[in-house]
Amino acid sequence: MAEGGSGNRRDTIRLITDYSSGALEMGVSVAVGVGIGYWLDGFLERRFQLHTSPWFTLFWLLCGVFAGFRALFRVARRLEEEQRRDDGGNGGR
Length: 93
Hints:
about 0% strand
């Protein structure tokens, strides 16, 4: 009985860490995208007097959002495949 509880707890912790890492990756992707765009707008403004603000920031923000959702999708797909594999090993129950 204690063995089954330990396995269930381990699975729960693993799920929490998987989803947390996906959410963290989403936030970091968006932050990095905004940072790159903001820096690029400032650099082009100072160096070449191009008035690109806020277009590069918005473009890289969208790239960061896309990368974040892609990371969440990969985590969800991996968890779904693991669930299917576990269900298949239990006779489909």
